């Protein structure tokens, strides 16, 4: 929201602080400022000027004008506006001499947008001799997020109250309630549900002239970032920007009947709004209606058919209060946010409706001379809640802030913010702070704290009990995993938790098996990953453009559907080794090594090399897979991939270390070479040998393999035999060897012995 | 006899190679060598002659062995020197094998800060990326239809059940709630992790980034404690003394709520482009925990209170390494990530 510095000053007479200092004060005490900008910079030195003569410049759209620029004297100005003609009074800005269209032009004639009066750039201003040009202003932009909780700060008067409290100046109230007429309006108000519409107030006027607003008012709206349209619509915006109270004017001639209803929309009703869009309404949307149907979406936007137009002569000027949640729900359901809905969803003060009408009564005769009030006030109102009273314990307050406080200072601060404070610090909350903002003593801590300034509080070390902290075991486990892979030469990557449908399908994952993002920000991010593989695949392809060999890993979570319950998140690690030129064996063996498990041959998944895929087995349990990426998924080179389920891995745990006595008797060992088919697994033979060797075989170790010329291969194993309590006799070792040879021959293996 | 010895000595000293020397040794000191010959006729000598001969042989043996050993040592050290010389290596060629890996810079900063908090007695908690609406919003005093929900553009999920229940956490604050449900009072905890906001990605905005949430619940925790703590923490993070200031900030789960700024570390105050000429850099939101939040987690706010804060890990990484485009962090591009290897 943008605040006009001049507007704030109007309510804080005597304010001396310059705009930049004011911005800093507001930032430190109230709300975050996003910046400050001059509004109407060219108004500095601008004066009224009469165009005396206009002369065409040959071959140019521009004209040469002679103007009487009052205090600046006669000036020759080159002007491009179509309406620049002799006799009009316009605004002259002394900018110095420069050559335009080959002629020395001294200063400029200004359009309304150049002076930040409004956004009109169709031509130069056409004014009357009694026009007063508005002064230069500054627009202070406040971060909307920082005033979400402050309905009162959505208007200049609310911000002026803060400024008055900060600087110690008095605050002027622009709303004079004594101007309001007694009840008795030609229109009746019927409210169906006071929860949704706690108050609806209105005044009826006739003899209305719809015309442009005075320049000072237009300039104010422009500085506050609002558009200008005509005096009636501008007034409505002016009241909103001043008092935070949205209002609306209906063309009375276009209303059916003399009763205005605030009611939920009926099924099937629709409305064409001021923005020319048609909205189909449901009973969840509160509307303002006349006898024939909706004339406004309550708190959000007016209807086009009852809007003010050039021929309007009679108006119903309403000022209402609506339930914040209801307005917000309607505004998000219909996808329409307006200055009004933004204010109502912050929970506006029902007391404020009459203040806005009182201010309208003061301004309308200025904006529409001759306007006449018809009858009295219409005001239908729920019983207003009495704002809460909060007991403020000053010792407690001092403990909360961590600072000694002077009771008189606390009182001064609260009273400057227009809280009422009793002798024993019973604090009454003003109505405009009581809707949602302030309800408990903690809220007052903030009021006092920000005004005394947090920089006045000394840092104090907290006194805390000496106790070991709880540390979830998975934290250290996951750290260990990351450390392990980084130490083995893998670089940690980080992928989004999203994947695209296309990526899911490429890996053969059914899209309907995924948690789906209802409002993805971009294409390709509509599913939650059920596997880290699509991400790592993308990384392999991308990095292969820059590197011939690399290793990378990621620790991340798979997210799985859980029958409509909270999705299950399972941490996994994926590690990959890419090599552009080799045959892929080294990478797979390296991943086997770093996995710390055994590999068991397994049928390949769709994305795996059909002859190079295995399960990783640890302590007899499958914890993941090692495979080479299917060549369909990678253009050049080979990628070996390791994928482990970290929950399973962590559950296996590390076996507790227990000392075993060091062997005292020597072992004997012998080697055996077994000839077998080319695709025999070493693990199969090892298991067989172990079985035949019996318990005295301490170890069966693979030594080497050798491809034979006849497409068979020879696998060599070393068998280590020994016993804990003696040295084995030569005959015992020979017996073991014989058993193995006999056994393997029984299985039809040939042995080189 | 002396001639015999002198001749042997001469042969030893004239050996040109280790092989020559070995041949001479066998001839001279071996079983059939010169010394053996000298003692051959010992049995025929008188006792006095035997004593004289014995002395002579011993002296000759010492002389011959000494000469042999000197020469042998010389040949050995010459041979060693020649071998060593031949083994010259160029150690400036790059080491073969696997190049070192690297932890992601987010991981590195996260661990550093976790360790710092652990040293201060904080527990490090983790929470799910998919959250319930309750934990992400309602339990943090942001009910449905609260305008504060606009502060955090949310990814909503279809997880098979009724829509609107599950979302991607927009902050790590839900772990506060989980911590209060899980830990004993008083409590000190942090929760680092990945969070999501539904916004378009550009050089300074990401929909996926990392935060670290912190919370301390105890008795009579004051704003003064919060300031002290933040100052200490940030001093440890930036490894220098930092000046902090609090100003009002609105976050429904704290009351009062603050924005914490630090004195610009680049210019130290006078103003520069990094601090947009203000001398201060907005760093983290914090505040005293809102009593409603305590109550919703079953904690009696008349007995307990505390502070909470949120630290942007992604932001911190970018500050630490002067990274000018946030998109690098989720790029998985090794040209970027390899720069962070230790």
In short:
The complex is a heterodimer of chains A (about 750) and B (about 350). Chain A is of the alpha+beta class. Chain A has 6 domains: about 1-40 and about 135-165, Phenylalanyl-tRNA Synthetase, Chain B, domain 1 (2-Layer Sandwich); about 40-115, Nucleic acid-binding proteins (OB fold (Dihydrolipoamide Acetyltransferase, E2P)); about 175-380, Phenylalanyl-trna Synthetase, Chain B, domain 3 (Phenylalanyl-tRNA Synthetase, Chain B, domain 3, 3-Layer(bba) Sandwich), CATH 3.50.40.10; about 390-455, Phenylalanyl-tRNA Synthetase, Chain B, domain 1 (2-Layer Sandwich); about 475-650, BirA Bifunctional Protein, domain 2 (2-Layer Sandwich), CATH 3.30.930; about 670-750, Alpha-Beta Plaits, CATH 3.30.70.
Tell me what the structure shows.
The complex is a heterodimer of chains A (753) and B (342). Chain A contains 19 helices and 36 strands. In chain A, a hairpin with a 4-residue loop joins β21 (420-421) and β22. In chain A, α4 (215-223) packs across α5 (231-243). The longest helix of chain A is centred in the last third of the chain and has 17 residues, at 730-746. The radius of gyration of chain A is 41 Å and the shape is elongated. Chain A starts with a strand and ends with a strand. The model of chain A has no long low-confidence stretch (mean pLDDT 95). In chain B, a hairpin with a 5-residue loop joins β7 and β8 (254-263). Chain B has two domains: 2-86; 105-340, Bira Bifunctional Protein, Domain 2 (BirA Bifunctional Protein, domain 2), CATH 3.30.930.10. In chain B, α1 runs antiparallel to α2, α2 runs antiparallel to α4 (47-86) and α5 (105-119) packs across α10. Chain B has a seven-stranded mixed β-sheet, with helices on both faces. A two-stranded antiparallel ribbon of chain B has the order 2-4. Chain B is rod-shaped, with a radius of gyration of 42 Å. Chain B is 39% helix and 19% strand. Chains A and B meet through α2, α6, α9, α12 and α13 of A and α5, β1, β3, β5 and β6 of B.
């Amino acid at each position: 929201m943008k605040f006009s510095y001049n507007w704030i000053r109007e309510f804080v007479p005597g304010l001396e602080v310059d705009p930049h200092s004011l911005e800093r004060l507001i930032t430190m005490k109230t709300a975050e400022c996003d910046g400050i900008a001059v509004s109407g910079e060219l108004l500095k030195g601008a004066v009224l000027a009469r165009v005396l003569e206009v002369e065409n410049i040959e071959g140019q759209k521009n004209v040469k004008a002679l103007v009487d620029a009052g205090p600046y004297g006669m000036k020759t100005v080159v002007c491009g506006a179509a309406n620049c003609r002799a006799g009009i009074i316009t605004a002259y800005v002394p900018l110095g001499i420069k050559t335009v269209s080959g002629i020395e032009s001294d200063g400029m004639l200004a359009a309304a947008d150049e002076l930040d009066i409004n956004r009109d750039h169709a031509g130069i201003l056409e004014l009357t001799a009694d026009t007063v040009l508005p002064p230069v202003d500054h627009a202070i932009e406040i971060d909307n997020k920082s005033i979400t909780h402050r309905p009162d700060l959505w208007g200049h008067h609310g911000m002026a109250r803060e400024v008055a409290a900060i600087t110690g100046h008095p605050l002027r109230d622009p709303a004079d309630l004594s101007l309001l007429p007694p009840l008795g309006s030609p229109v009746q108000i019927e409210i169906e549900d006071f929860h949704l519409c706690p108050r609806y107030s209105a005044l009826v006027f006739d003899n209305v002239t719809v015309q442009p607003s005075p320049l000072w008012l237009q300039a104010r709206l422009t500085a506050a970032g609002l558009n200008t349209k005509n005096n009636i619509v501008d007034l409505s915006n002016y009241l909103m920007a001043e008092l935070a109270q949205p209002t609306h004017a209906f063309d009375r001639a276009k209303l059916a009947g003399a009763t205005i209803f605030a009611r939920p929309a009926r099924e099937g009703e629709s409305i064409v709004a001021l923005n020319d869009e048609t909205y189909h309404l449901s009973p969840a949307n509160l509307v303002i209606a006349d006898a024939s149907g909706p004339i406004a979406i309550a708190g959000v936007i007016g209807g086009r058919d009852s809007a003010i137009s050039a021929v309007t002569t009679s108006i119903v000027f309403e000022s209402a209060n609506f339930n914040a949640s209801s307005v917000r729900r309607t505004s998000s359901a219909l996808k329409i946010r307006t200055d009004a809905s933004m204010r109502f969803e912050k929970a506006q003060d029902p007391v404020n409706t009459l203040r806005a009408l009182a201010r309208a009564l003061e301004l309308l005769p200025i904006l529409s001379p001759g306007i006449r009030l018809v009858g009295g006030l219409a005001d239908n109102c729920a019983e207003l809640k009495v704002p809460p009273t909060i007991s403020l314990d000053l010792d407690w307050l001092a403990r909360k802030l961590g600072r000694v406080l002077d009771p008189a200072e606390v009182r001064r601060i609260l009273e400057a913010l227009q809280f009422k404070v009793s002798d024993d610090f019973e604090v009454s909350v003003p109505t405009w702070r009581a809707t949602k903002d302030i309800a408990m003593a903690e809220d007052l801590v903030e009021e006092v704290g920000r005004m005394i300034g947090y920089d006045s509080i000394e840092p104090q070390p907290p006194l805390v009990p000496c106790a070991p902290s709880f540390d979830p075991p998975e934290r250290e486990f996951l750290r260990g995993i990351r450390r392990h892979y980084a130490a083995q030469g893998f670089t940690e990557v980080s992928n989004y938790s999203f994947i695209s449908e296309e990526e899911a399908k490429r890996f053969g994952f059914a899209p309907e098996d995924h948690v789906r993002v209802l409002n993805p920000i971009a294409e390709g991010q509509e599913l939650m990953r059920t596997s880290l593989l699509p991400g790592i695949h993308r990384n392999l392809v991308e990095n292969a453009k820059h590197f011939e060999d690399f290793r990378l890993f990621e620790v991340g979570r798979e997210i799985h559907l859980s029958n409509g319950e909270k999705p299950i998140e399972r941490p996994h690690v994926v590690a990959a080794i890419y090599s552009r030129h080799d045959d892929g064996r080294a990478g797979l063996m390296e991943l086997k090594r770093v996995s710390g498990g055994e590999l068991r041959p397994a049928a390949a998944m769709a994305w795996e090399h059909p002859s190079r895929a295995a399960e990783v087995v640890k302590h007899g349990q499958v914890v993941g897979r090692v495979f080479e990426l299917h060549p369909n998924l990678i253009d050049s080179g080979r990628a070996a991939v390791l994928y482990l389920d970290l929950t399973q891995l962590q559950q296996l745990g590390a076996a507790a270390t227990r000392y075993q006595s060091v062997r005292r008797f020597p072992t004997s060992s012998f080697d055996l070479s077994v000839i077998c088919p080319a695709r025999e697994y070493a693990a199969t033979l090892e298991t067989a040998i172990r079985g035949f060797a019996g318990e005295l075989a301490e170890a069966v170790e693979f030594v080497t393999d050798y491809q034979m010329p006849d497409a068979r291969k020879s696998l060599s194993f070393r068998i280590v035999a020994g016993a804990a309590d003696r040295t084995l006799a030569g005959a015992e070792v020979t017996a073991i060897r014989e058993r193995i040879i006999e056994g393997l021959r029984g299985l039809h293996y040939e042995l080189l012995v | 006899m002396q001639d015999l010895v002198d001749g042997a000595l001469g042969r030893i000293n004239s050996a040109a190679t280790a092989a020559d020397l070995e041949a001479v040794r066998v001839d001279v000191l071996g079983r059939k060598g010169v010394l053996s010959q000298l003692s051959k006729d010992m049995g025929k000598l008188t006792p006095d002659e035997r004593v004289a001969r014995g002395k002579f042989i011993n002296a000759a043996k010492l002389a011959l062995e000494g000469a042999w050993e000197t020469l042998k040592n010389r040949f050995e050290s010459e041979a060693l020197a020649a071998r060593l010389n031949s083994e010259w290596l160029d150690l400036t060629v790059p080491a073969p094998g696997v190049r070192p890996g690297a932890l992601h810079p987010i991981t590195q900063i996260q661990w550093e800060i976790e360790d710092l908090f652990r040293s201060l007695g904080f527990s490090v908690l983790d929470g799910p990326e998919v959250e319930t609406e309750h934990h992400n919003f309602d339990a943090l005093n942001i009910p449905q239809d609260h305008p504060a929900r606009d502060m955090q553009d949310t990814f909503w999920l279809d997880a098979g059940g009724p829509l609107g229940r599950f979302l991607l956490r927009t902050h790590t604050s839900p772990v506060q709630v989980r911590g209060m449900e899980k830990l004993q009072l008083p409590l000190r905890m942090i929760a680092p992790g990945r969070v999501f906001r539904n916004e378009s990605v550009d050089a300074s905005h990401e929909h996926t980034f990392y935060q670290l949430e912190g919370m301390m619940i105890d008795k009579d925790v004051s704003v003064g404690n919060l300031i002290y703590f933040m100052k200490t923490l940030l001093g440890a993070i930036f490894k220098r003394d930092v000046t902090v200031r609090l100003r009002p900030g609105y976050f429904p789960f704290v009351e009062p709520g603050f924005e914490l700024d630090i004195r610009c570390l680049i210019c130290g105050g006078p103003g520069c482009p990094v601090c947009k000429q203000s001398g201060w850099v907005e760093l983290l939101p914090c505040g005293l925990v809102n009593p409603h939040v305590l109550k919703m987690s079953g904690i009696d706010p008349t007995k307990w209170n505390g502070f909470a804060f949120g630290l942007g890990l992604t932001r911190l990484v970018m500050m630490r390494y002067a990274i000018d485009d946030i998109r690098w962090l989720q790029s998985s591009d090794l040209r970027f990530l390899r720069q962070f290897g230790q």
